[in-house]
Write a structure and sequence with these properties.
Number of helices: 4
Number of strands: 2
Mean pLDDT: 83
Shape: globular
Order of helices and strands: HHHEEH
CATH class: Mainly Alpha
CATH architecture: Up-down Bundle
Strand content: under 5%
């Protein structure tokens, strides 16, 4: 069951990504706050980041249990990448970086090590999404179906 605070958070994210998509194009050099991932996903997959907000057990805010499919594994690995970035002293959820969309691929154009790490995390996730089949049955997958067993991040 989705509590009211989480509902409003997802509603705000949905609104932001809808507005982001309505811009209609991705500029050649992007810097958009915590939402660079949305642009990188759109560049690499052609799909709106909205599609991944509550997909499976790991896409969106938080994550638990066992990933349901290849897309969910992409999200799990992205979470691991962000954790490593945080361990390196970076702030991947609030940090900014520059990138360019070139032939359906995000090219990092960053100014420091943290920006490079964050961009690579997002770029790898987007490439992973592009390769993985999208299964609509995992949209709004309930947390209780994710189970207790969790994979470990690789070093």
């Amino acid at each position: 069951e989705l509590n009211p605070c989480r509902y409003h958070f997802y509603l705000c994210l949905l609104f932001f990504f809808a507005a982001y998509d309505s811009l209609g194009k991705i500029q050649s050099r992007n810097r958009r706050g915590i939402f660079e991932l949305a642009g990188v996903v759109k560049c690499s997959t052609g799909r709106s980041a909205i599609s991944y907000i509550r997909y499976g057990c790991y896409c969106g805010l938080g994550g638990r249990g066992w990933p349901r499919d290849a897309v969910d594994w992409c999200c799990f690995k992205h979470d691991c990448c962000y954790s490593k970035a945080e361990q390196a002293g970076c702030q991947p959820k609030t940090g900014h970086y520059y990138w360019e969309c070139n032939d359906k691929s995000a090219v990092c154009d960053s100014e420091d090590e943290c920006q490079e790490i964050m961009c690579k995390c997002d770029s790898k996730a987007a490439k992973c999404f592009a390769k993985a089949p999208y299964n609509s049955k995992y949209i709004f997958w309930p947390d209780f179906k994710c189970g207790e067993r969790e994979p470990k991040c690789k070093d």
